[in-house]
Amino acid sequence: MKQNSNTKTINFNRRGWRISDCLSIICLLTLALSAAVLNAAAVNIYDNGGLASGATSKSGVAAPAGFQWSELSTENGSNFSNTTLGAGCQMISTTTNNRCADDFIVPVGQTWTINNVLVYGYQTGSVANPFVGGNLRIWNGRPGDVGSTIVFGDTTTNRLTTSTDSTWYRVGNTLGGAGGVTAAATGTTRKIWQINLTV
């Protein structure tokens, strides 16, 4: 990693890299990295997929005005429904410390200057922004594996700069599915927030 006063440049040309982040509530496993490329404006250099599924649920229910659903999908086009709404990525006291990770690969020969990491999260029932802090580490390799190293970050520095309303609500699959999965009702109890972490 090469650093100057304004940027952190990481030359990635080996194994996959992984972001490990910790927020104060629930994290949805969507990650976006933004960077300044060749002194241009910030651009999105990696995104592992969208969360918004549209203004109308699969069962035909319209989202509230100005919002979209983030509805769970069915598995590989089948009628088997995913039932996991999110994953716990929080630190509660000293006994519960859950971290989430996502891997990405920088193409050989490229250099990325990462300025921000965006993650998305919700706290069921929260109307106001529930996020008060977030930290992250960038690893060369899978966290905890022999030979893996931390190339940036730690588990204590608060890197959260902003949390904004994404205008999405997380809901289960409203059609249900095979294997006894009951159709989920739409609802507004899981407002998703976009959380910006600086690097």
Q: What are the main properties of this structure?
A:
single chain, 15 strands, globular, 0% helix, 199 residues
Gap between N and C termini: 12 Å
Helix content: under 10%
How many H/I helices? 0
Provide the residue-averaged pLDDT: 76
Q: Oligomeric form of this entry?
A: single chain
Which structural class do the helices and strands define? Answer: mainly beta
Shape: globular
SSE topology string: EEEEEEEEEEEEEEE
Strand content bin: 35-45%
Largest sheet: 9 strands, mixed
Q: C-alpha Rg, in Å?
A: 18 Å
Weakly predicted, low-confidence segments: 1-17, 20-31
Please, could you describe this protein's structure?
With 199 residues, the protein is an all-beta fold. Strands 1, 2, 4, 5, 6, 7, 11, 14 and 15 form a nine-stranded mixed sheet that branches. A four-stranded antiparallel sheet has the order 10-3-12-13, with no helix packed on it. The protein is globular and about 45 Å long. The N terminus is likely disordered.
Question: What's the helix and strand layout?
Answer:
Blueprint: E1 2-3, E2 8-11, E3 17-23, E4 26-36, E5 42-47, E6 68-71, E7 87-88, E8 91-92, E9 96-97, E10 100-104, E11 111-122, E12 134-140, E13 149-153, E14 160-171, E15 191-198
Summarize the structure.
The chain is mainly β. It has strands spanning 2-3, 8-11, 17-23, 26-36, 42-47, 68-71, 87-88, 91-92, 96-97, 100-104, 111-122, 134-140, 149-153, 160-171, 191-198. It has no helices and 15 strands.
